[in-house]
Write a structure and sequence with these properties.
Blueprint (H helix, E strand, L loop, with lengths): L18 H7 L1 H7 L3 H4 L1 E3 L17 E2 L2 E2 L4 E5 L2 E8 L2 E8 L3 E5 L2 E3 L5 E8 L2 E4 L2 E4 L4 E4 L12 E2 L2 H7 E11 L5 E12 L3 H5 L3 H9 L17 H12 L42 H6 L2 H4 L20 H11 L20 E2 L2 E2 L2 H12 L2 E11 L6 E6 L7 H11 L3
Antiparallel strand pairs: 1-8, 2-3, 4-5, 5-6, 6-7, 8-9, 9-10, 9-11, 10-13, 11-12, 12-18, 14-15, 16-17, 18-19
């Protein structure tokens, strides 16, 4: 007999238990997961979750307009936005000759790896604030898609942001201003912030209830088994959010569960490029990976070959190089892992003799270099031209220019 799920308050419905329930039993995974990028990718904005400074010092340097306060973003002599901490929250205050308009930081999007963008509620609509924070440049920056010379607060945020950066938001209606554009009206009480366990694992209320009633059962019941999925199904779990923004959805991807086929959620998009050199590095990890020989010539390679999403492992390049070497080994290999042609078995790169530590430390930079995204650029206070977001390319191959750069760093000065 199926167990009766506990009284449920999850906005996604009775099938869902919510992350706190999962963490009651899965303490190990839960403990590391809360610090990982997915869990932190959307949060209620407050002084702890917004990474940019609110102090009035002048630590971050000068702009064309002279010394800039840390809590200001200056457009030109007549326009600036001041980041203010007040009793009722954090605000972006636009100051021009004629107006002073303030909106509160309500939602912070981005774990803070590279950048954060902030959203605010107006009625049942959600809008983007004009100023974002560019973490790697330590600078407030003009939000993507806003003009560099005037202050706007009116970019309505569509459900796509939430589909990739949160676990759920309920939509009430669409306000149509014209044929092409609509402003979605959301139900504020239904937001499930961050990407939670059930976003990837599927609804888990029955599982949680069963395991609670049967503490002696060491097999996970009523829970999708990743081990039984095909490679494509496993890839699709990640491709929901890592294969670009698709147009023409047939069904909301909030409904996607492990085992589903992602292509059933979209109309085919003929404009999507199959060529890795035409594919933007931002958000397209799936397309780039499946164009790589590592994927094409192996039976097992998938996202999980290199990533454990329950743990924050970002930029730990030696850990990732070890995962390459699970397959690219001189002989034998590890149990259960495919063996591919060993790279650099003669200890050489492009004919130059290098040591093992050099190979391991530069493995990722030579074969998966960070590339500039053409889609995501931010205009910072210090720069005249927008600065591109750098994203690791998942097109794994030989990049002769990158190798030359790494080898040049070896040469004695
Ligand atoms: C009352 C305790 C309990 C709760 C609550 C619970 N689990 Fe489990 N879960 C278990 C046990 C016991 C197993 C089996 C042993 C194992 O794999 O760790 C398991 C197994 C799993 C598995 C592995 C399934 C497989 O065999 O591949 C996943 C995934 C999982 N749980 C996810 C979740 C999620 C998501 C939630 C929250 C919705 C959750 N669990 C809530 C106890 C619990
Ligand atoms: C199709 C999925 C998708 C959509 C839609 C999407 N994003 Fe993202 N976003 C991602 C992925 C994946 C990353 C991180 C990896 C990358 O850059 O390729 C990311 C990165 C970001 C980052 C940087 C996070 C950090 O910590 O460095 C911000 C900020 C961001 N997105 C904001 C937004 C906003 C605001 C919207 C809506 C206007 C949006 N995104 C829409 C998938 C998406
Ligand atoms: C971004 C997607 C994603 C999220 C979010 C996620 N998981 Fe997983 N989880 C996976 C994948 C993929 C696997 C399979 C790993 C493998 O076998 O390669 C997995 C495996 C598991 C397993 C079984 C294997 C193991 O490592 O013990 C458990 C239990 C589990 N997850 C629990 C959780 C819990 C609890 C949460 C939330 C705190 C969570 N997961 C969040 C993707 C996710
Ligand atoms: C619901 C959408 C969603 C799903 C499903 C998803 N991701 Fe992500 N992923 C994101 C977003 C958004 C980010 C950017 C997070 C940030 O830094 O704010 C991200 C970031 C990452 C990162 C960078 C982590 C870091 O520390 O910076 C990795 C690696 C990653 N995802 C792998 C995966 C894998 C593997 C899967 C499938 C098991 C998966 N993702 C499923 C949305 C998703
Ligand atoms: C699941 C196994 C597997 C993993 C993990 C793996 N590869 Fe591969 N890789 C292959 C296979 C199979 C090939 C193609 C056949 C061969 O070269 O043996 C390949 C080919 C390559 C090539 C040649 C590409 C070309 O365009 O000619 C490079 C370079 C490479 N891999 C680097 C890496 C790096 C770096 C990593 C880690 C970031 C990695 N691989 C992880 C299996 C894997
Ligand atoms: C062969 C190994 C390998 C595979 C397979 C792989 N990745 Fe990665 N991924 C890496 C490495 C190495 C990095 C760089 C580590 C870092 O900087 O955090 C990375 C970084 C990322 C990032 C952060 C990119 C950035 O620069 O912000 C995301 C997102 C990501 N991977 C998602 C995925 C997804 C989704 C898949 C499956 C479609 C996948 N990865 C498959 C090796 C791999
Ligand atoms: C300094 C840059 C650099 C580093 C570090 C590096 N590679 Fe390479 N790799 C290359 C170049 C260049 C080639 C093309 C063949 C050559 O010139 O040696 C190559 C070729 C390969 C090939 C294809 C096999 C072949 O002989 O054509 C594989 C597989 C590979 N590398 C894997 C790795 C792995 C795994 C690591 C890290 C553990 C790594 N490489 C570290 C630059 C590098």
């Amino acid at each position: 007999m199926q167990p009766a799920p506990a009284k449920n308050v999850d906005p996604r419905g009775a099938g869902y238990a919510g992350m706190a329930a999962c963490m009651d039993c899965h303490k190990g995974i839960g403990g590391t997961y809360v610090h990982a990028a997915h869990a932190m990718t959307s949060r209620i904005a407050n002084i702890h979750t917004v990474d940019g400074p609110f102090g009035r010092g002048t630590g971050s340097g000068a702009s064309a307009a002279g010394a800039t306060r840390d809590n200001e973003f200056i457009y030109d002599a007549g326009h600036k936005v001041i980041m203010e901490q007040r009793d009722s929250g954090l605000y972006q205050v636009a100051v021009t000759e004629r107006v002073r308009e303030a909106h509160r930081f309500d939602i912070a999007v981005g774990s803070g790896r590279k950048a954060q963008t902030y959203l605010y509620w107006k009625g049942d609509g959600v809008f983007q604030l004009p100023v974002s924070y560019f973490v790697t440049e330590h600078s407030w920056a003009n939000s993507p898609y806003y003009p560099p010379d005037s202050i706007w607060f009116d970019r309505a945020v569509n459900v796509g942001c939430f589909e990739c950066h949160s676990s759920y938001i309920g939509t009430k209606a669409m306000l149509h201003t014209n044929f092409f554009e609509g402003t979605p009206q959301y139900d504020r009480a239904t937001v499930v912030y961050g990407i939670d366990c059930e976003r990837c694992h599927g609804p888990g209320a029955l599982h949680a209830a069963w395991q609670r009633e049967h503490p002696e059962d060491t097999v996970g019941r009523y829970m999708a088994k990743f081990a039984r999925l095909t490679r494509q199904q496993r890839l699709d779990v990640c491709a929901v959010c890592h294969s670009g923004a698709h147009t023409g959805q047939l069904r909301s991807v909030f409904l996607f569960k492990p085992g589903d086929t992602l292509s059933n959620y979209y109309f085919a998009d003929p404009r999507l490029s199959k060529a890795p050199e035409n594919t933007d590095v931002h958000g397209n990890q799936y397309e780039l990976l499946i164009a790589s020989q590592c994927y094409l010539q192996s039976k097992t390679l998938e996202c999980g070959s290199c990533h454990d999403v329950h743990v924050r492992e970002r930029e730990n390049l030696a850990v990732f190089a070890a995962r390459c070497m699970n397959c690219h080994v001189p002989a034998g290999g590890h149990a259960g892992v495919e063996v591919a042609r060993g790279g650099h078995l003669d200890g050489r790169v492009g004919g130059v003799k290098v040591d093992r530590a050099f190979l391991i430390n530069n493995c990722i930079d030579c074969h998966m270099p960070a590339r500039a995204s053409a889609r995501i650029t931010l205009l910072t206070q210090q720069q005249k031209d927008p600065v591109a977001d750098l994203v690791r390319s998942h097109y794994i191959t030989v990049y002769p220019e990158e190798s030359k750069k790494r080898l040049a760093a070896l040469a004695p000065h």
